[in-house]
Design goal:
The structure is a single chain. This protein has 16 helices and eleven strands. Helices cover 38% and strands 13% of the residues. The chain has helices at residues 9-18, 23-36, 48-63, 106-113, 161-168, 185-190, 225-235, 253-260, 283-298, 314-329, 347-358, 361-374, 379-400, 426-430, 437-442, 471-485, and strands at 43-46, 75-79, 117-122, 174-179, 194-197, 217-222, 269-273, 302-306, 406-410, 446-453, 459-466. The protein has an eleven-stranded mixed sheet. 56% of the residues are buried.
């Protein structure tokens, strides 16, 4: 059996099909890797018994020639925001510390039915609120990457920090993430991975612990664009239980990857938005962006300068809309029906004590902001105005996609930073999402592809954005960009 550390889904599926490895062997290898790398704190709950049971079932199916697809037998991490029947689901919060769902989320159920093996529930920022995975009740996650010549602990990005740490650290082959304002793409950029946010509604939100319902979207985190396509096809699809689910067939994104994998970008029109050039942007980020433009042009793409004039309002708009929806969604955690309960002298006191103890500082901060912008006298001035600006941002993209097929931008304004570096400055932390938030507000599919390393040997990502339901175009462009970048670096190489 091969003991390679960084398997891809495609390579694992091939090895399983050839009988070079069994799912049980592959699963045991990754369980040992988890046990040997607990310093990453990538998992909140380990589900090794479930994993071995599913691995054995996969091997039995394969022996009978009844393989469920390319995910069958592949060990993955499940972000601890997806409800999993019989396996603790905490959303990284004290208030749900002991919650064990009696039902399965649609996305995790689809992946289970596709034969994937769930190793455990990956750590995250509490209720997915954060950009560094430092707000989890169960402790912060360590980025497997370290700066060249240094021994600093870096954040993995957030909120899907546990998911990217698991994949980048070689303890899971792929992972699920959720993206509200960049929580798949930004951590993927910080850890040298591919992270993809589908069109809003492509993947069901049913059974996913809600943060901001009009923004939340599940997506894959993987080593390659091909792996992301395989996983996306397994996760996506119409769900009548989700009123926002798109009743459309899932596109053949793996075929789209094959079309671009040889470096063919002929016929692609690529937009470069001037508004994404920030004052004081690090030279490494600008250099990589310029390089990305050159790569696509050399592969036959047509490069066009475009304008998204309302981009500058995206971040403040997001931090009105998202906290407002969070305030509403998190009202259900009251100590009455499920989750933590702290007794009080009255019902109101029980609510207050339970929520004060159950929610961390960042969650409380966003609830208070959200409650304020929804309150009488401020609703029209803030929330309604933010929704109007959101429409303008979406219209900007709609107009641009009349002239181009994809938009190319940086994924994040920096490489991974040290733990504690921005923790006391919420505004600085929120700025991590400056490049990812606009696509989220517009509900567009977007992907981060690793493009290179900065001066400290840390990974940097390039973001591609396409039009609504244009995932095939997105995957083709991403495969071409991946081919040109030739990124092969792994965590540990720089140290």
């Amino acid at each position: 059996m091969s003991t390679q550390k960084h398997w891809t889904i495609a390579a694992a599926a091939d090895a399983l099909a050839k009988g070079e490895v069994s799912s049980r062997e592959l699963t045991d290898q990754h369980i040992k890797a988890i046990e040997d790398n607990r310093i990453l704190n990538a998992f909140i709950t380990e589900s090794f018994d479930v994993a071995r049971e599913r691995a054995d079932a996969s091997d039995a199916r394969r022996a009978k020639g009844d393989v469920a697809g390319p995910m069958d037998g592949v060990p993955i991490a499940m972000k601890d925001l997806f409800c999993t029947e019989g396996v603790r689901t905490t959303a990284a919060s004290h208030i749900l510390e002991n919650f064990v769902p009696r039902y399965e989320s649609t996305v995790s159920g689809k992946l289970r039915d596709a034969g994937s093996v769930m190793l455990g529930k990956a750590n995250l920022d509490e209720f997915a609120m954060g950009s560094a995975n430092i707000t989890s009740y169960f402790g912060s996650v360590k980025n497997p990457w370290t700066p060249k010549g240094a021994n600093a602990d870096l954040v993995p990005g957030g909120s899907s920090g546990g998911s990217v740490a698991a994949v980048s650290g070689g303890v899971a082959i792929a992972a699920t993430g959720t993206d509200t304002g960049g929580s798949i793409r930004q951590p993927a950029s910080f850890t040298g991975l591919v992270g993809m946010k589908p069109t809003y509604g492509r993947c069901s939100r049913w059974g996913v612990v809600a943060f901001a319902s009009s923004l939340d979207q599940a997506g894959p985190i993987a080593h390659t664009v091909e792996d992301a396509a395989i996983m996306f096809e397994a996760m996506a699809g119409y769900d009548p239980k989700d009123s926002t689910s798109l009743d459309m067939p899932v596109p053949d994104c793996r075929a789209a990857v094959a079309a671009g994998a040889g470096g063919d970008a002929k016929g692609l029109r690529v937009g470069i938005p001037k508004e994404y050039t920030l004052d004081g942007m690090p030279a490494d980020i600008q250099k990589l962006w310029d390089q990305g433009v050159t790569w696509l042009k050399d592969m036959g793409a047509e490069i066009k300068d475009v304008s998204l004039p309302h981009t500058k309002y995206a971040l403040p708009t997001y931090y009105i809309v998202a906290p407002a929806e969070a305030s509403s969604n998190l009202a259900r955690y009251d100590g009455v029906r499920y989750g933590l309960r702290v007794p009080g002298g009255s019902l109101d006191e029980m609510y207050e004590l339970t929520r004060a103890e159950g929610f961390g500082d960042e969650v409380q901060r966003r609830i208070m902001i959200g409650t304020y912008v929804l309150s009488a006298g401020y609703y029209d001035a803030y929330y309604v105005k933010a929704q109007q600006v959101r429409t303008l941002i979406a219209n900007d993209f709609k107009s641009v996609f009349n002239d181009v097929d994809v938009v190319l931008t940086p994924t994040a304004p920096s490489a991974a930073f040290a733990k504690g570096e921005k923790m006391d400055d919420p505004i600085a932390m929120y700025l991590n999402d400056v490049f990812t938030v606009p696509a989220s507000l517009a509900g567009l599919p977007a992907m981060s592809v690793p493009g290179g390393l900065d001066a400290n040997g840390l990974p940097l990502g390039l973001q591609l954005i396409s039009g609504v339901c244009q995932e095939e175009t997105l995957f083709r462009a991403a495969a071409a960009l991946e081919h040109a970048a030739g990124f092969t670096a792994k965590a540990g190489d720089a140290s």
